[in-house]
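queue> holo job accepted (adenosine-5'-diphosphate)
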Amino acid sequence: MQDKPENRVIWLFVALGLLFIVVLSIQDLLHSPISWTEAKQKIESGQVESVEIDSHLVRLRLKESDTELRTDMLETVFIEQDESFFPLLDKNQVTVKAVGPSNCEEGSSWLFTFFLIGLIVYMVIRMQRTGSSNPFARSKASLASPESSTIRFTDVAGIDEAREELEELVAILKQPQRFRTLGGRMPKGVLLVGPPGTGKTLLAKAVAGEADVPFFHTSGSDFVEIYVGVGAARVRDLFEQAKKKAPCIIFIDEFDAIAKSRSSRNLNGNDEREQTLNQLLVAMDGFDSQQGIIVIAATNRPDSLDSAVTRPGRFDRQVHVQLPDIKGRRAILEIHAKNIQLDDEINLDMIARLTPGFSGADLANILNEAALLTIRKAREKIGLVEIEEAIERSIAGLAHKNRHINEDERRRIAFHEGGHALCAAALPVADPVQKISIIPRGRGALGYTMQNPEQDQNLYTHKQLYSKIVILFGGRAAEEHLFSDYTTGAADDLRRASDIARQMIRRYGMSEALGPMSFERDENRFVQELSPSLISLLDQEESKILKEAYHHASSIIQQNEDLLRSLGQQLLEEETLSGDKLDELLSRTQEYRI
Ligand code: ADP
Ligand code: MG
Ligand code: ZN
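queue> job finished
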């Protein structure tokens, strides 16, 4: 640490504090404590010249210094009930000197007051110097010091969709004037969402590097301190700095540390965090979007964010950064293997195949670990053994985070997702399938099938809702058909299917037995009391829809069994399927009418 003048002042106060403590303990030495009986004996024997009575204490000044105790002041606790005390004083002609705090104690309280005044003066001076309303606001200097990034887009691989979305920012940052004259509305905030280690920080740095603008690297936890008001002051400070350096990028990692939704916090709340978030939103609303400050925030828990954060003019763009598929992993490995000597027996394709579910950071780590193992064994080049050992070590870590998927599970997931896709392709009213993946995607989703609605939809027909349920059941039906058994993997599908069925019956009046009637309970309107027989009828109707839909899903799977097998196989090999290849495969599906 540098010896700044500020530090010297702090040391001065530490020294003063120590002095204060020393003085207090010397005082204790000066007044040796004795018992009440002893005190009375001293008075009786005529050794005492005078006494000072405090509310609880009696100090005895001796005529001659006590050689044993080496002091001329003795102290004892005053026992007021002892009525013989004052007559005793009179009898021995002891003067009663003072009633109240002693001079000596006064001296030490003066010292203490001086200490306090000094501290306050010091803080006021600091506040004036930093121009901030809070003396702690700048205590973390790194918060407001911009870096210049050397990272380029070529250093980022395997997350092409996210990269493409951010490329536009570079163009804007490079020529804010041009963008301004075209009348474009500059984006203010971008939210990078994805699991840890997928390259969110790296991407943000690449944007700064490509645009050649300063990069303020902060983290949500930097702002949140125990002192109320510090976080808000730091936000203000940061934006002031950024304005001076614009165009520039402010990066906020671990954004959820400040932007957690108000409802998800505990009841007594965290005022400090709320103030910090409010200050951030005010700062973002406040700066003119033409200034060229772009705030990029990263989080792996987007569902926990306060809804105020994603409002237009704030973080209105979300970019998803996902775990890489096999091709992506191969590309990431290539970047990190540039300066590494691999043995001829291995190649990057092999490593990519061995590492499903690994993030970019995991992959960089494996190569690093393998290189260390190789050095330890005094070998020249990294071999298959070292790579496998490094992967195994990582897998232990991933399993701990519930992210490692074994080969059996991968097969299950591949055919399960294939089942969803097949049902979607077979049903004429369903939205087309855009992408299938067996790469885990946060919050317990082990794979996913993405359908792309051809247009935004506000109204759904009965058939469309029913088709949704059939598609949700496609996964489990495929598992049952191919493995004659099913797993717990369909839990979320079942929940969503049940929700839709319940809404169809209770909200949209789509039940034949009950007719067009709503059973929705609304706080503002009167509440219908449902009779037990009616409740059981509602349950029956829901269950009927679900069972029929499952039956339909099974039929679709049976009719398209061969296609399901090749779809699953392709997925196991490539991990994600999209575009022409997927369209070509799914175009072979037999249409199914319900
Ligand atoms: P995140 O911010 O998403 O947690 P980081 O950007 O901090 O992840 O990634 C940590 C490191 O892992 C990076 O510095 C880089 O070495 C490596 N890495 C992660 N993702 C990628 C990627 N997509 N391409 C290349 N390297 C990556
Ligand atoms: Mg990071
Ligand atoms: Zn599913």
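queue> The chain has a mean pLDDT of 83.
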